Amino acid sequence: MERIEFISRSPSDTLVIGECIGRSTGAGDLFLLYGELGAGKTHLVKGLAKGLAVADWEYVVSPSFTLMNTYEGRLTLCHVDLYRMENVDAAQLGIEEYLDQGVVAVEWAEKSSWWGSPIKVTMEVTGEQERRIVVEVEDVSRAKVWRDFGCKH
After folding, report:
1. What's the Rg (C-alpha) of the chain?
2. Which of 16, 30, 81, 149 could bridge 118 with an S-S bond, Cβ 3.0-4.6 Å?
3. How many domains does the chain have?
4. pLDDT band at 86 (very low <50, low <70, confident <90, very high)
């Protein structure tokens, strides 16, 4: 397991970090996002959308009431928010079909159990605007890309 730490000093930094990660994201990537309310999870997903070439990436919003939104770009991005759910069975969400040809990002991922080798993203509030973003990924080459090609802030 590779662990990469980013420091975001503003919402725009978080967006750039998400964009950088999104540029090297491939079909089948499952991002599980953890962090308190206001940690910047949705902003990171907005950056992922931008990195995936979603035309209307700035309109990416948290699907708190709809549970799931999809966006078309280089790959389909399925954005899931489990904030209002309790003990969700991940298999019942139907996200496997999106993983076949796209990327899935799940906010409040702790409300379910997961399978495979997801990419775990933990966001910690460390100051009024500052966030520590820790990405844990099995793929060492992916970690190297994020580490070496300007994703650091």
Report:
1. 14
2. 30
3. 1
4. confident
